[in-house]
Specification:
The chain is mostly helical and 59 residues long. 37% of the residues lie in helices and 0% in strands.
Length: 59
C-alpha cells in the first residue's frame, strides 16, 4: 500500500503528489506495461515528452 498527502505549496507543481507517492517504488517502473510506464516516466520528468493524458496511466 502506498500513501501520500498533498500540501498547498505543491499545488503549483504538476504531478507532485504522484512523484511523492511513487518515489519509494521508482525502481519498479520497468515492470509496468509500455504505455503506463511511459506515462508515469513522463509525469515524473524521467522522460522527454509532455504530460501524459490520464487514460494512458490508468489503462
Amino acid at each position: 500500500m502506498l500513501r501520500t498527502g498533498g500540501v498547498e505549496f505543491g499545488s503549483d507543481l504538476a504531478f507532485a503528489a504522484l512523484h511523492q507517492l511513487l518515489r519509494p517504488v521508482a525502481g519498479l517502473l520497468d515492470a509496468l506495461p509500455g504505455p503506463q510506464r511511459d506515462a508515469v516516466r513522463a509525469a515524473l520528468g524521467h522522460a522527454v515528452g509532455g504530460a501524459p493524458n490520464g487514460r494512458a496511466a490508468s489503462s
